[in-house]
Design goal:
7-stranded mixed β-sheet, 3-stranded antiparallel β-sheet, about 35% helix, about 15% strand, binds pyridoxal-5'-phosphate
Length: about 350
Amino acid sequence: MKRVYNFSAGPAVLPEEVLREISEEMMDYRGTGMSVMEMSHRSGVFDEILQTAEKDFRELLKVPDNYKVLFLQGGAHLQFAAVPMNLMKNRVADYIVTGQWAKRAYEEAKQYGTANKIASSEDQTYSYIPDCSDLPVSGNADYVYICENNTIYGTKFKTLPDTKGKDLVADVSSCFLSEPVDVSRYAVMYGGVQKNIGPAGMVIAVVREDLITDDVLPGTPTIMKYKTQADTGSLYNTPNCFCIYTCGKVFQWLKKMGGLEVMKRKNEEKAAVLYDYLDSSRLFQGTVRKEDRSLMNVPFVTGDQKLDAKFVREADEAGFVNLKGHRSVGGMRASIYNAMPREGVEALVAFMKKFEEENK
Ligand SMILES: *Cc1c(COP(=O)(O)O)cnc(C)c1O
């Protein structure tokens, strides 16, 4: 068996310990004689998996009691629509557009009401986070929306925007559980789990209870109402059972690692290995304004497309895979989520140094 260092932006690397446990339980999950894929979502055994996953998630993120945790299908893209459908009472919302995913959410919201772009970093290929300390927040806005960590461009909000009292909605797909956060500052926080938590095919949404009502936009599908999902404990229909099970294992792993304070420190140290090298390299450069750098997604370039391609090819052959940058940015991107060990980043930097030597 050979494992590579996988720098994919998503679906992405998972802890080996989790993968091993799952493979051990595949033929016979704890004496049931079947795998989790094969069992009823209404069974007691699965109910325990679901309840434990929610409990551990709440504990890790310190989710306050007045928030519901929902396990939803349809990916982050379905939330681009579900957010306005559930929250746009006045049919007005303000969007801060810091990358492709925020832009998609903004475009989607326009279908349901007036979506205002109140700040953007599009003028410089989304390479920075705009100043959000005094935004023209609309008086009748139902919420202010951000994508907290921009997976493609490698930027992260280090401080949350001043929403002037409006509810904050955040897509946290690519920074979910990478550090502690104060959940009470958000009205809705949601993330696709395939970046930092589990396999593709599910979103975890953390929704403040007073926002969970029957007062949704006309035509909202029953399954997309937060109320439907909250009332049924995410079991209105068949959920993504195997994904919930895998996420649950990752939550256990995070707890064993010491929780989110420890993960934050580890992630900072790990990212520093790469950023420090980028700052000293004569060949490679980071593409993001320093103060806005993400701990999870690190884009970089040589400035020469041919050399970028050569690097990606040679890195791949050496076992550092999925380093090609997103097609909209070019160059390279190393995604270094929770499950990427520090040794992986150190090995990558050693490889980059060697490449720099050979291509002076
Ligand atoms: C990957 C990603 C998405 C898209 O997720 P899907 O599950 O494919 O819909 C949205 N937002 C962010 C921040 C992402 O990283």
